[in-house]
Amino acid sequence: LISSATKSLRMETEILEKKLQDAQTKLAEKDGDKEKEIQSLKRLISELEFQLTMEKNNNESFLDKLRKEMKHKSDELEKLTQERTQLIHNLSQVQEENWLLQETVRRECEERCGLTAALGRAREQVRELRRLGGTGP
Q: What's the angle, vertex CA 24, arms to CA 23 and CA 26, rounded to 5?
């Protein structure tokens, strides 16, 4: 009976040891698979971090370019604004000069009209004197 029980226990022990070995093998395989997955994820993380760094650099470069362009446009706008102000000032001076010239022409025209009228009266007087005096000066 003892021998039979011992034999039965040995067989059961062998079965359990075999199951233990199988479980340990499966566990080692799972650990290996998990380690491979961890390494794969680490590589993926590294690649993504590199891409993120590249994108940040590209964005910073793009922002720098936009800032420079904006500064250039701002400088151009300031220059154009100054030119516009100068042109408005020049226009104002030209308009004032034009008004003065028009006023001068108006006065000269009035003066010419007055002189023309005086000349007409003088001619009329000369005709009248000639008619009255015959050959007088």
A: 65
